[in-house]
Structures are given as structure tokens and as C-alpha cells.
Design brief:
Number of domains: 3
CATH class of the largest domain: Alpha Beta
CATH superfamily of the largest domain: FAD/NAD(P)-binding domain
Number of helices: 19
Largest sheet: 7 strands, mixed
Length: 537
């Protein structure tokens, strides 16, 4: 018997386990895979001399999130490394928008792309100075953000009130066109928004784009020295220093529920693990509801809601080991850790339209990571460890390109899609393909085999569109970690506030477990249940 069982050793599960251990709880983390980390892992699978991050790579939310900052992971081995520039978006004509570490340098770059755009960027930075930290506090706490609401409301009022809210709730394209004359600022905002499954025309896309770009301007988009796996290793070391344990190769097959309360879990070997206080599930909502917990222990309305659960887009990724740096035509791109690949705003919309209609984009928007630029430990001197990923439909209806990709993702289709991404890089960096010393392709089914939560490479635990955020995440209700089963908490990216390596989903679940186990829990549990029934009968 332990106080708490955490299902899954992804970063959210490990953050939750650390917080419970800090409170003196005896915690066991059960992980199905041979090693912890979920989507936060690295390996040498492309080339033995190169470190490659398997899924996530840059961690702006990791350094900005209050939950992650509170763990002080630098004491447990994390060393953050930054590229000289945060983000670049090279254009076909050789110009390049660059988000520099210094806001004035970013402004100067954007001014060269559009008269007055530097001043516009500094206005957005000023907005961050006024409300940014309050937005983060509100975003990364359970919804509604009761404690954070008043400071945020006061900051919003000082910054412009409803006018600011209207701007941030606009599509990224709208805000970009209102603020910037040239392409640079528009692309930095819209490209950042497209790190999720938002489109340039999606409501509230401006908020996502502004938030990620401003976090980059304030904190950078850093990487852990030595690979993504070093972030996971630090979380594990911290947990073990407090008596917690991580058990790998231990898949959980069910949550044991009696009289509406979670009592523990049962593993694939048939072994029951008793949880005296709580079970926290760092698994996707569809894997928990109707999976680990049977429908007989859940309200009928939840079953109907889960049929409407929306995943974010599937992911296709290529890792490369290069014999030398990427020979960008735009020198600014070579200084950035992350590079966005798209010829312009209309191409971003075209990419999104193809996804919306089930077609593999002919000219996909891709994110490219130059890992050795950010962290020289990733590959031998003078070489480069690189990846790029793009989104594809979960169910492919057609290929908007010339290769006849059907979504079977056999060897031919994987090679065709990888070549499509490489051609995009080659157009902006002639000679790129000649430097490829090794290549690995990760098609959508491989993400799910690597981590069952990443269904076809849906990296955000569910869509980021507004209809499945806040009180609607993962289903209509309170937007909290509590579930219909007492003592069971959803700790994955399927819970509010969603995807990204920020640990807030795990932190919120841990706080909820602690609150319900405390003296106030006798009042808190029925009150939240009643409110949930009121909002989503």
C-alpha cells in the first residue's frame, strides 16, 4: 500500500509525484514503457554520435511555468542551454524574421521587414510586461482561476481592458495584420500559434501566438544540456530523493473502483497496488474514461461526451544527423534554435485548409530544431543534430501533393513525406541534403507505439481549439483535475490547461488530491460535484 499511485511517468506524472512527495506522501509511479519520460526523452537512434530528442525538444513553457520553476530542477542536474536567437522564419527571397534574445534587436529586425514594425513589437512586449505573468498564473492553475482572477483583472484593466481582450481573442492572422505592415511580425505570431492545432484564422489564436512569442522574448526557448531525457532524469532524481519510486515496465490495466471511489490500480501482471489516498492518471482522457475505468463506474453523460472528444492533429517527424550546419540562404536562420518553414501567411492558411479537409498538405508548415546550435553537446564539433515535424490528418482522405500518400504510412509513404519536408529545407538552404549523414522517420503510428498517450502523434493531449479548453477540457464541466470517481484525478495534457511541457496538469492534479485528502475535503468534494452537475448536467 502507498498513499498515492501515479499512472504514467511522463513529465506531468512526475511533477505530480514530486509535489505529493513534498507533502510527505508515499508515492509510486507506474510506467508502461521501459524508461520514464513519455514525450520527454532523447536517444542516439539516428547516429551513435548524435543525441536526438524523440518527441519534445525546446521548453519555453518549462522555464516559464510556475509549477516547473517551483521544483528547482537545476539542483537536480538540469542545465538550460540557449541558441543565439530564439526563433527564425526565413522567406524565399532571402529575408528572415528573427526573434532575438533582446527585444530591441527583435524590433530592429522586424523594422527592416516593415516600417514601424519594430515599434509594434515593442508594444506587444509592453503588453507582456503589464499582464504576462498574471496570464501565466491564471493559465496554469485550475479553472476558474479564483486566486489569480483579481490580479489578472486589475492588470488587464490597466493595460486596456476589453480592447486588449478583444485583440488577444482574435485570430493570429487578424492581430498580425492589425499590428504589422511587413511579414515578419505576422509570421512570428502565426507560426507560434501553429505549434498547436490552431489555424491562422482560429479564434484566440492571437493569444497562443502572442503568449509563446513573448515567453520566447522573456525566457527564451531553451533546451536541457545533453538532451530532453536530462529533464526527465532530474524529475526522477528529485522524486527519489524524497522517497518516491518509479516502476517501469509496469503497465496499469485498470483502476480499482468500489462504491464510487478509487482504491488503487491493477497492473498487467494481475498485481493490485492499493492507494490509500489517491490515484492520479497521467494518461489521455479516452484512455482513462471507458478504458482504465469502466463505463459502469462513470456517468452516462461522460460516455457521450467522450465520443465528441477531439484530438489535435497527427504528427510526422524527421530526425537528421548532418555532417555540417544547415547552409541557410538567410544567415539569421542559422543562429536560431527553432526555425519555422513556410513561404508566407497564405501558405500557412493553405496548410491548415488541407488539414481541415483531410488532405496531406502539399506544402506543409514545419517546425525545425537546430539542436547543436542550442546545445553543442548534441553532436560532434562542426556537425548538427536536427529535426523537423509537421502535422498531417488523422484520417487521410487524399494527398494534396504529388505522392499519393494514403495514410497507411508504409515505407514508401514515409520516404515520400520525409522527402517533401527535405525539399522545403533545401529550397531555403541549398546543399542541405548533401549534408545528411543519417535520417530517421517517425510516422504517426510510431508516436503511439512510443507513448500510448500520443495517439497518431497528437502531442497536446487533445485539440487546443476553444471548444475544448477551460471549462470544456476534456469535457464540459469545471476544467479541473477531479473526475466523477472520488480519489481519482486526471493529470495528463487532456486536462486543463492542456499540452506543452509545463507540468501544470500534473501540478493541478496533485493540488486537488492534497486538498481533497485534507480537512476541507469533506466539503470540497460534494461542492465541486454539485457545481459540475449544475454546469454539465
Amino acid at each position: 500500500m502507498v498513499d498515492a499511485v501515479v499512472i504514467g511517468a511522463g513529465h506531468n506524472g512526475l511533477v505530480a509525484a514530486n509535489m505529493l512527495a513534498d507533502a510527505g506522501w508515499d508515492v509510486a509511479v507506474l510506467e508502461a514503457q521501459p524508461e520514464p519520460g513519455g514525450a520527454v526523452r532523447s536517444d542516439r537512434g539516428v547516429h551513435p554520435d548524435y543525441v536526438s530528442d524523440v518527441c519534445s525538444a525546446f521548453y519555453p513553457l518549462g522555464v516559464a511555468s510556475p509549477a516547473m520553476r517551483a521544483l528547482d530542477l537545476q539542483r537536480y542536474g538540469v542545465r538550460w542551454r540557449h541558441a543565439p536567437a530564439v526563433l527564425a522564419h526565413p522567406l524565399p527571397d532571402g529575408r528572415c524574421a528573427v526573434l532575438e534574445r533582446d527585444r530591441d534587436a527583435t524590433a530592429a529586425n522586424l523594422d527592416a521587414l516593415g516600417a514601424g514594425d519594430g515599434a509594434a513589437w515593442l508594444r506587444l512586449c509592453g503588453l507582456w510586461d503589464e499582464i504576462g505573468e498574471e496570464v501565466l498564473r491564471a493559465l496554469f492553475t485550475p479553472f476558474p482561476p479564483v486566486r489569480a482572477a483579481l490580479p489578472l483583472a486589475a492588470a488587464m484593466r490597466r493595460a486596456g481592458g476589453l480592447r486588449v481582450a478583444r485583440s488577444l481573442l482574435a485570430p493570429a492572422r487578424t492581430l498580425g495584420e492589425q499590428e504589422f505592415a511587413g511579414p515578419g511580425g505576422r509570421l512570428l505570431l502565426a507560426g507560434s500559434a501553429l505549434h498547436t492545432d490552431l489555424f491562422p484564422e482560429s479564434t484566440a489564436g492571437a493569444l497562443f501566438g502572442w503568449l509563446l512569442a513573448m515567453i520566447g522574448q522573456r525566457y527564451g526557448w531553451p533546451v536541457p544540456e545533453g538532451g530532453a531525457g536530462e529533464l526527465t532524469a532530474a524529475l526522477v532524481r528529485r522524486l527519489e530523493s524524497r522517497g518516491g519510486r518509479v516502476h517501469c515496465d509496469t503497465p496499469v490495466t485498470s483502476v480499482v473502483v468500489r462504491n464510487g471511489r478509487a482504491l488503487g490500480v491493477r497492473t498487467a501482471s494481475g498485481e493490485p497496488v492499493r492507494a490509500a489516498r489517491a490515484v492520479l492518471a497521467d494518461v489521455s482522457a479516452p484512455a482513462l474514461y471507458g478504458g482504465l475505468v469502466g463505463w459502469s463506474d462513470l456517468p452516462a453523460s461522460l460516455r457521450a461526451d467522450m465520443r465528441r472528444f477531439g484530438w489535435d492533429q497527427a504528427t510526422f517527424k524527421v530526425d537528421w544527423a548532418l555532417s555540417g550546419p544547415i547552409p541557410w540562404s538567410s544567415p539569421g536562420a542559422g543562429r536560431a534554435g527553432t526555425v519555422h518553414l513556410s513561404p508566407g501567411m497564405d501558405a500557412l492558411t493553405g496548410h491548415s485548409a488541407h488539414l481541415a479537409t483531410g488532405r496531406v498538405p502539399a506544402e506543409p508548415f514545419a517546425l525545425l530544431g537546430q539542436m547543436t546550435v542550442a546545445d553543442p553537446a548534441r553532436s560532434p564539433a562542426g556537425t548538427e543534430s536536427v529535426w523537423a515535424y509537421t502535422h498531417v490528418p488523422h484520417r487521410v482522405k487524399a494527398d494534396a501533393g504529388p505522392d499519393g500518400i494514403t495514410g497507411t504510412w508504409d515505407e514508401r509513404e514515409q520516404a515520400a513525406m520525409a522527402d517533401r519536408v527535405e525539399h522545403m529545407v533545401e529550397r531555403l538552404a541549398p546543399g542541405f541534403r548533401a549534408r545528411i549523414a543519417g535520417r530517421r522517420v517517425i510516422a504517426p503510428p510510431a508516436f503511439q507505439a512510443h507513448d500510448a498517450n500520443l495517439v497518431n502523434g497528437a502531442l497536446n493531449g487533445g485539440t487546443s481549439l476553444i471548444h475544448q479548453q477551460l471549462v470544456f477540457r476534456p469535457v464540459p464541466g469545471l476544467g479541473r483535475a477531479e473526475t466523477p470517481v472520488a480519489g481519482l484525478y486526471l493529470a495528463s495534457a487532456s486536462a486543463h490547461p492542456g499540452g506543452g511541457v509545463h507540468g501544470a496538469c500534473g501540478a493541478n492534479a496533485a493540488r486537488a488530491a492534497l486538498a481533497h485528502a485534507g480537512p476541507a475535503g469533506r466539503l470540497l468534494t460534494p461542492a465541486l460535484n454539485a457545481l459540475g452537475r449544475l454546469l454539465a448536467p
